[in-house]
Design a protein that fits this description.
Distance between the termini: 97 Å
Order of helices and strands: HHEEEEEEEEHEEEEEEEEEE
CATH architecture of the largest domain: Alpha-Beta Horseshoe
Number of helices: 3
Strand order of the largest sheet: 9-10-12-14-15-17
Strand content: 25-35%
Helix content: 10-25%
Radius of gyration: 31 Å
Shape: elongated
Number of strands: 18
Oligomer: single chain
CATH superfamily of the largest domain: Ribonuclease Inhibitor
CATH class of the largest domain: Alpha Beta
Number of domains: 2
Length: about 280
């Protein structure tokens, strides 16, 4: 009984001791830190960076990459980080003698992934003419091949379907295979007169258009392409190729393809001849 009373007394004393500790000292025990150690902002946009668990005034400084970001104070402990151009920078926050750093990455604004309107010159003509036998047979074979690979019923086997196939002077000049579940490899090498090709929003892993030298319009966004060769498509004027898996695109030979006519992911390096 005596030991029990002694234990109770100790617990009461400990509780009283805890009650005497100011709340400010308890909060001071929390570690002072940044809200983000790494921050990603879009060019022209801003994000807030702040120091947590302190009421002291914070001094902010750009350690590196001043040309990529700018800072604007927001109260005592926060700052607004604005992206100026694509690149990386480092921001430092000083709380007394304590220094905290944050790596900031600025990315370009993502380009629109909407599919542009088809060229005016691709108005469907009548039924394929007699001299289009080669194109007609090649198209039938290509359709059959894609069906075997798992293309959906949306892929029309009727080569006179004007919604998917455009014929002009007996030659196949346009293919529209959007969202038809194309899979694997696709080669349009048999169609030398092809002017436009839509094959976006499918599951293609390879696309060969190297023989389509008349091609002026190509939309292949939303696939799984690890590379894209358009160096032989010198007539190309519009290219939509976002949401794929390649990291660079060579357009050195595409002199008719202007920068604003290329719809590509911001992280893809566009290789162009500057000479």
């Amino acid at each position: 009984m005596r030991r029990k009373k002694q234990l109770t007394a100790c617990l009461l004393a400990f509780a009283l001791l805890l009650g005497m500790i100011p709340a400010s000292e308890v909060s001071a025990a929390k570690k002072v830190s940044l809200s983000n150690k790494k921050l990603t902002v879009t060019k022209g946009k801003s994000k807030t960076l702040k120091v947590k668990n302190t009421k002291k005034k914070v001094k902010w400084k750009i350690l590196s990459g001043k040309k990529y970001i700018s800072l604007k104070k927001k109260g005592k402990v926060a700052v607004s980080v604005k992206g100026k151009k694509k690149g990386t920078a480092k921001v430092q926050a000083m709380v007394g003698k304590k220094k905290l750093t944050c790596k900031v990455t600025v990315k370009n604004v993502k380009t629109s992934k909407t599919t542009p309107a088809p060229p005016v010159t691709t108005t469907p003509s009548a039924t394929p003419l007699a001299n289009s036998t080669n194109d007609a047979e090649a198209l039938k074979n290509l359709i059959a091949e894609q069906k075997k690979q798992g293309a959906s019923s949306e892929l029309s086997e009727d080569i006179q379907n004007s919604k998917q196939y455009t014929w002009k002077n007996g030659r196949l000049v346009g293919i529209d295979w959007r969202k038809v579940e194309l899979k694997g490899e696709l080669s349009t090498e048999k169609f030398s007169a092809l002017h436009y090709l839509y094959c976006n929003n499918n599951q293609l892993t390879s696309l060969d258009v190297t023989k389509n030298t008349a091609l002026t319009y190509l939309s292949c966004s939303g696939n799984q392409l690890s590379s894209l060769d358009v160096t032989k498509n010198t007539a190309l004027t519009t290219l939509s190729c976002s949401s794929n898996q390649f990291s660079s695109l060579d357009v050195t030979k595409n002199t008719k393809l202007l920068d604003d006519a290329i719809r590509c992911d911001a992280n893809v390096v566009i290789i162009r001849n500057n000479n």
